[in-house]
Amino acid sequence: MMNKSRGRPRGGSDAKDRILSAAQTLFLQHGYNATTMRAVAAAADVDPALISYHFGSKQGLFAGAMALGISPGQVIARVLEGDPEQVPQQIIRSILTIWDDPELGGSLALLVTQAQRDPALLRTFREYVERELTARLAEHIGGADATERAGAVLTVTLGLIFSRHVLGLNPTAAMDSERIVQLLAPSLAAVLSQTGSARTGG
Questions:
Q1: What pLDDT is stored for residue 79 in this prediction?
Q2: Of all residues in the chain, what percent are helix, strand and coil, respectively (each to 5)?
């Protein structure tokens, strides 16, 4: 009987580089939503299983292709799987941990800067945010206005990123991260809360 070993799918020594190159090209050509892992595998001439082996998911592939170093969508997914009472605090802590890191924050800042000059990249990044961040938050929140409230969460968090890391606006830029969590978590908690939504709706 033949022994079949299981491990990394075959694809050549340069397979990972080919995957990243193909993924970047297809994401920019077709956007995040329309690009499939199977299409990337075909363009890179590799077994589709090799993409899962190296990157785990489409989110991981996107992060690799865009040289982000981390997948924001996967970070949010892990936060939402945690203690519901701590979700507002953990969302803010996660953002600060990533953006305060010179390497991770720098890669994201570079992507944002490039997207402002490149319409194809801007479209791709917007689709990624809408699908992997807004939609996941809306699913977690639930209710008829879940998407609107998910958008409000992103408005608060993107405002934090812009003021602290793009403008370097004080006092936010110089503030201790836990102080920022303390100040902003109640706002996120109100947005995420069904009861908070009912009160504001009259």
A1: 95
A2: 75, 0, 25
